[in-house]
């Protein structure tokens, strides 16, 4: 994959000014803005629809395992299928060089939760090489728009009921389809591709004008040549989400350590794995969000650094959106007086969802000591979790505060136990306790306070009561 992108930079395409026209999808030029800009000096003309052979593979609750191939060219195939005009339609659109696995996983999860028309788009003939894929996606986008137009004209189906979910180049492909479809309901961009799309005009890339609502998840939003990224650095939706800062995802290997192995073949594999991991996390996050309507709460903030410092923890009065499938529930989703960036943290491995708490402990005790303090909390969901609040020098009278991204959704906290562990292996007479614990948790910054007047030895639980 690394070698292919380098080849893209060395490839000389056709000279600007040429045009091709195809029945059903219209005409395409290789002039501005498609070619000749700083970001797209080498792009060219797309192939014919016949050569690309775009396929629409339908899954419903009537046929969740075996697809039905439907075609707008022969609309009777739609009529004879399990396509339901009373259902929402979600079309999963891959990028280049894909095996279709994430699309199948997406349909499987969607159909567990919703009675929808789930369509997996297959344009693999036209997307095997990146340089060809960036040209061909215009024809495929026109094919998707034509498919929706047939639904409207032959089946009186509203375009507002169509949701395009595109990964990588598929996100820009969805934008192309949306720009041709007035009233399209929604586009979700899953780490829209960066190379050949950074800082391009909105006609070329995904843009908020392409649908009634456009939400974007960035997981590898860095420039390819400078930080080895596959995603675009541009915000391109009504809501742009940046999990873990949006650049490199926890659990995806770094590229520096393998260099010291001096094994070129192994390093090529590491590079490929690095791109695929970071870039693919976007659709992993989205798929998981389908099953977790209250997970992936994201906070508006100026920067990821400021978010991690806790400066943006409380949601503003208008609330916070959730990243992923239920982003469209945010009531201000299309209001953008000033573009906001939405940040959140995730786990290293699946399940990725995390729930943020701000925990403060006012410490009581008989001596300053070295140790760690933990809170064991229970909440309205019936689940419990144990979180470390501080470690090192523990000074009675001090208040210790920590932001916790919990891997368990305990809900609003209803019970708290304080536990501390001493770092010394020698027995001591030190005792500590939590005089007051304050928790701010959840999307609505629910605040709860618990108190106690007891102090305990190490490893003994202190039970606090609401105060």
From TrEMBL:
Residue ranges constituting the Lipase domain according to the UniProt record: 19-352
Enzyme Commission number(s) from the entry: 3.1.1.3
The entry's keywords: Calcium, Disulfide bond, Lipid degradation, Lipid metabolism, Metal-binding, Secreted, Signal
Record bears the keyword Cytoplasm: no
GO molecular function, one term: lipoprotein lipase activity
Main localization (coarse): secreted
Signal peptide: 1-17
Catalytic residues (UniProt): 168 (nucleophile), 191 (charge relay system), 279 (charge relay system)
Source taxon at top rank: Eukaryota
Binding residues annotated for Ca(2+), in chain numbering: 205, 207, 210
Localization annotation: Secreted
GO cellular component term, pick one: extracellular region
SUPFAM superfamilies hit by this protein: alpha/beta-Hydrolases (SSF53474), Lipase/lipooxygenase domain (PLAT/LH2 domain) (SSF49723)
Every PLAT domain range: 368-458
Gene3D superfamilies named in the record: alpha/beta hydrolase (3.40.50.1820), PLAT/LH2 domain (2.60.60.20)
Keyword Calcium (UniProt): yes
Catalytic activity: a triacylglycerol + H2O = a diacylglycerol + a fatty acid + H(+); 1,2,3-tributanoylglycerol + H2O = dibutanoylglycerol + butanoate + H(+); 1,2,3-tri-(9Z-octadecenoyl)-glycerol + H2O = di-(9Z)-octadecenoylglycerol + (9Z)-octadecenoate + H(+)
A single BP term in Gene Ontology: lipid catabolic process
Family label: Belongs to the AB hydrolase superfamily. Lipase family.
Protein name, entry field: Triacylglycerol lipase
The species this protein was found in: Vicugna pacos (Alpaca)
Gene that encodes it: PNLIPRP3
């Amino acid at each position: 994959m690394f070698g292919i992108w380098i080849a893209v930079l060395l490839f000389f395409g056709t000279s600007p000014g040429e045009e091709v026209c195809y029945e059903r999808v219209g005409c395409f030029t290789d002039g501005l803005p498609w070619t000749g800009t700083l970001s797209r000096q080498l792009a060219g003309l797309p192939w014919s629809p016949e050569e690309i052979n775009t396929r629409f593979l339908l899954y419903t609750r009537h046929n969740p395992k075996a697809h039905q191939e439907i075609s707008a060219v022969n609309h009777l195939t739609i009529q004879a299928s399990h396509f339901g005009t009373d259902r929402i339609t979600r079309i999963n659109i891959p990028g280049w060089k894909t095996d279709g696995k994430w699309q199948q996983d997406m349909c499987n999860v969607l159909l567990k939760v919703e009675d929808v028309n789930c369509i997996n788009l297959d344009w693999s003939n036209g997307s095997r090489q990146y340089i060809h894929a960036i040209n061909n996606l215009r024809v495929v986008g026109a094919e998707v728009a034509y498919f929706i137009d047939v639904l409207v004209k032959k089946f009186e189906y509203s375009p507002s009921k169509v949701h395009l979910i595109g990964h990588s180049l598929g996100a820009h492909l969805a934008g192309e389809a949306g720009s041709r479809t007035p009233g399209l309901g929604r586009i979700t961009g899953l780490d829209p591709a960066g190379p050949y799309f950074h800082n391009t005009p909105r006609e070329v890339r995904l843009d908020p004008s392409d649908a009634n609502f456009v939400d974007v998840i960035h997981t590898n939003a860095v420039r390819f040549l400078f930080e080895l990224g596959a995603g675009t650095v541009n915000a391109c939706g009504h809501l742009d989400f940046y999990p873990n800062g949006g650049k490199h995802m926890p659990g995806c290997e770094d590229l520096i350590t393998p260099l010291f192995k001096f094994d070129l073949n192994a390093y090529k594999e590491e590079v490929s794995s690095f791109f695929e991991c970071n870039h693919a996390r976007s659709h992993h996050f989205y798929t998981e969000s389908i099953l977790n309507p209250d997970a992936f709460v994201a906070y508006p903030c100026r920067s990821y650094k400021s978010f991690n410092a806790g400066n943006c923890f409380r949601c503003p009065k208008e609330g916070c959106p959730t990243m992923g499938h239920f982003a469209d529930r945010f009531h201000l989703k299309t209001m953008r007086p000033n573009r906001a960036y939405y940040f959140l943290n995730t786990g290293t491995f699946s399940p990725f969802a995390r729930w943020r708490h701000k925990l403060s402990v006012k410490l009581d005790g008989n001596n300053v000591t070295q140790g760690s303090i933990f809170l064991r909390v229970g909440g309205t969901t019936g689940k419990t979790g144990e979180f470390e609040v501080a470690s090192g020098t523990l000074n009675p009278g001090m208040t210790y505060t920590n932001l916790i991204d919990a891997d368990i959704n305990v809900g609003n906290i209803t019970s708290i136990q304080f536990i501390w562990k001493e770092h010394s292996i020698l027995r001591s007479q030190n005792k500590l306790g939590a005089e007051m614990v304050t928790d701010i948790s959840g999307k609505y910054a629910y605040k709860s306070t618990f108190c106690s007047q007891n102090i305990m030895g190490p490893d003994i639980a202190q039970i606090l009561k609401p105060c």
